[in-house]
User: Which sequence fits this backbone?
């Protein structure tokens, strides 16, 4: 009893220290602008929240909550978690819908518009342009997430979490960027992404989705360069922290096929279950990532399982079943109450394959690569039984980077967040614990790559006009009235245009104060112990000009 | 006891007679094509259903179920009944959402693309082109629903129902078309529609939504015709069956204003509650229609109540509250269990006011007047506690005309459906009682006015090509994969195009066998006992050239 009381005191002390340091996190100018309006209110609320977090921890014998973070690829808002929209698309996601009903639906989660940036934003709590990060291409690049970036895995590790990663990574082909060098104790991941894994196959060429790549479908006797078509790329690897990665999917000389891709997906599904079992059995809390490659897939299965039948849609329904297994395993292991599970997508659909993929622009316009709502709005659900109200929803604005800061806070690891750079992620613990209306963010800056393309405040969104064009002439949309951003209204622009320009000024001032950090650079494919000869050859050709 | 047993026997006998006659209802060729494939199965199911209907009636002391039919104006699929989509639009409809959760959501309800046609299809069970019906314009037309058409109100009246209508009617300005001459014991309705009532005001001109109509905003000294701007139109009237209508909203010489429009809406809300109370107190079952004029409205209120704030959106949220009162009254009167309540919209949004109205093309493309899914897909919910499963949903195709045949069946009034004309409405009692997968329709023919514009079968939809163009060259869409009908696929058209052409042949053959009936014609404004002098004058000018 005495020991427990002491424990609570120590937690409260630790968190008040953390809070003191929290105030010194460097946030974007817009957050400071809000903090100037709401700081006292938030500080008072934070005291209450610290008490609540300490109580929760006490209930769990002093163990901070486990975190399971599931990030699905390229699925726009509305494609998962809603029965109504299941009917529209002919894709059933009963397990995701049920999962959603057990926690809070974040109805206005913003991501970055592409895979690499969203994942980097989550991992570092920073919008990716701040570290020079754009979408990592499929070929060798010799670039990636810099060692200097501090990931949520590193932060949670400092606090004693065990950390594992399973599935897509997409943070570059240089050694410092690999997950086991970025805070994960163990990782199974492909070095590249689905353009390699699900499209660069004979089957995807025959399905008419990958054109001109595979030699069996197109050869040109006048071709000179034998490296224009990517060749010898590393596929799936596994590694432990501090160790070498080991390629596990291909033997030397073997060709990557749709069957390999399907096996890889199935393997990750097996591995996430295994990891969950292993980590749940340990004394320490865990942080576990599952970043599936599906629904991206470009070849029809032997037999479709969904009414939709499109090659993405069908795999989304398959994935729903797989996630059902995973959720069941969480329950079966008896860790549900002390495990925060977040499920979301990384960005909008790959609209380039509309009509046959089965995923279409549904509510919002646009998709992957675009700053339009269809590119940066995704379904997001958070479950934490007994803490987050089941069946709840929040219409507040949240950005994927907020999860970084929020997870750190909940784990009691806020003090490990670096203070020498801008952290975009806002602590949203109040929203999760106190419910709708408690977000500390009412804005988002939407970038495409390194370029600011739009600014969101409340229900208003300005598409950034070309340089020199005044805000009053920029297209400003009311997202509630015009979710597809098709009818800009001068009546909005004439007052909000100027306010948006002020927002941009506050944003740029902070960039001037904290200039962007450089992208990680290096030789590709280092730190892999069993590079295939064709990968060695590819790297040598790459190095020869580099 | 003996009396009850006799009752059941008489019901079973009556319904087996009804069923024998049901087979002789003249349906479209496509239904006969389906019946040839499923007739025996359906007959067996119908026997079971008749037993069930008799049991339900017995439970209610022999009283057939009351029917309350609520039809909302110009709201596309997804705008009501879904929390997710409430968040998207910033329009809260908690009462409708709760109502939806208490019954079955019809996820694929097709309507006609405009007010008059959808309402006529419901009233007569016939697609409106069969009776020459197109959208009734706002000015004097001397046309309307023909006396020869047999409405669901007339059919239910034959079976002893009391019948009332409150709200929008929009079936023409001739006496035979008035609701109290089409089967309703009592009716309160405006003679025209919202273009007159919500737009032809000084306030709508000042709100910049009605241009060039009101003399206070635009006058032209060179104008000759004083009747180009409609003038002296009759507004709201009330009447009893067989009696004269009486204008109730305007005094002679008075100008119609936004305040009048709001009062009219509020009056209909009061009157629907009054009607419900009166009808519930009677021994006979009732058929009661509430066809609100809201959300159509073009002037901002003193203070918006929704986050969206658009002039349609805000009234939709207001209407949600009003419907909440109505649903509560149904419960309070103790008639919930024996009352079927259907709530739906008549067609897609009035997209012409997108950006400011607050309703936008959301999931499906298009709106009012268009055969696109955005024009003919609306939210539809059916509640019948203890009979229809709460929280259920059906992805089956249903057409608004099916309600005619289904209501008749449930009321035991099938025998009164005329046998001398095509009835498009399919009996969907099996769907309501046995649940999803029991629709007897997998097709719809979509007309715009008198022109066939598209044909739907399952998830496929062909836009009808111009005459002479073969089906293989017509755009064919997969609605699940491409809800916005933007990516026609030759791979669909090359097989389905021919099948669609066959469907059209079956449809046209039946039209040749049962030619269209004529639209009702007559002198406008007859049967109104207190015509204002300005209305008399307007009719005289109309008659002078007619």
Assistant:
């Amino acid at each position: 009893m005495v020991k427990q009381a002491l424990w609570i005191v120590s937690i409260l002390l630790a968190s008040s220290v953390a809070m003191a340091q929290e105030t010194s996190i460097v946030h974007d100018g817009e957050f400071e602008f809000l903090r100037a309006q709401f700081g006292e209110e938030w500080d008072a609320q934070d005291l209450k929240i610290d008490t609540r977090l300490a109580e929760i921890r006490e209930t769990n014998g002093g163990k901070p909550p486990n975190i399971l973070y599931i990030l699905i690829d390229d699925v726009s808002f509305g494609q998962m978690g809603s029965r109504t929209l299941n009917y529209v698309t002919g894709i059933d996601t009963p397990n995701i819908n049920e999962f959603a009903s057990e926690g809070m639906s974040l109805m206005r989660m913003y991501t970055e518009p592409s895979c690499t940036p969203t994942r980097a934003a989550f991992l570092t709590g920073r919008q990716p342009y701040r570290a020079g990060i754009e979408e990592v291409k499929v070929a060798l690049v010799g670039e990636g997430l810099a060692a200097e970036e501090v990931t949520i895995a590193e932060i949670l590790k400092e606090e004693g979490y065990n950390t594992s990663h399973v599935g897509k990574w997409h943070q570059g082909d240089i050694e410092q960027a690999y997950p086991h060098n970025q805070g994960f104790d163990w990782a199974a991941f492909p070095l590249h992404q689905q353009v390699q894994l699900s499209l660069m196959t004979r089957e995807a060429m025959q399905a008419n989705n990958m054109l001109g790549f595979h030699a069996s479908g197109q050869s040109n006797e006048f071709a000179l360069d034998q490296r224009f078509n990517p060749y010898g790329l590393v596929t799936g690897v596994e590694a432990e922290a501090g160790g070498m990665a080991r390629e596990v999917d291909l033997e030397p000389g073997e060709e990557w096929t749709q069957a390999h891709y399907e096996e890889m997906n199935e393997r990750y599904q097996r591995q996430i279950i295994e990891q969950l079992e292993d980590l749940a059995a340990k004394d320490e809390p865990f942080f576990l990532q599952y970043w599936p490659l599906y629904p991206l897939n470009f070849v029809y299965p032997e037999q479709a399982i969904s009414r939709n039948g499109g090659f993405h849609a069908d795999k989304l329904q398959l994935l729903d079943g797989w996630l059902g297994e995973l959720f069941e395993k969480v329950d079966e292991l008896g860790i549900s109450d002390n495990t925060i599970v977040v499920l979301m997508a990384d960005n909008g659909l790959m609209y380039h394959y509309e009509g046959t993929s089965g995923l279409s622009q549904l509510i919002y316009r646009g998709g992957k690569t675009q700053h339009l709502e269809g590119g940066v709005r995704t379904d997001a659900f958070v479950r934490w039984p007994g803490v987050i109200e089941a069946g709840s929803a929040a219409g507040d604005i949240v950005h994927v980077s907020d999860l970084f800061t929020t997870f750190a806070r909940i784990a009691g690891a806020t003090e490990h967040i670096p203070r020498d750079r801008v952290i975009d992620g806002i602590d949203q613990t109040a929203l999760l614990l106190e419910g709708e209306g408690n977000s500390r963010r009412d804005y988002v800056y939407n970038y495409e790559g390194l370029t600011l393309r739009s600014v969101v405040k409340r229900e208003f969104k300005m598409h950034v006009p070309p340089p020199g064009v005044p805000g009053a002439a920029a297209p400003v949309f009311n997202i509630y009235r015009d979710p597809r951003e098709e009818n800009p209204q001068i009546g909005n622009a004439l007052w909000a245009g100027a306010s948006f320009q002020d927002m941009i000024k506050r944003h740029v001032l902070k960039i001037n104060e904290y200039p962007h950090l450089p992208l990680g650079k290096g030789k590709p494919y280092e730190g892999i112990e069993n590079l295939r000869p064709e990968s060695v050859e590819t790297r040598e050709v790459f190095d020869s000009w580099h």
The interface with chain B takes residues 77-78, 81-85, 87-91, 105, 107-108, 307-310, 313, 354-358, 360-363, 393, 395, 459, 478, 480-484, 486-487, 489 of chain A (CB under 8 Å).
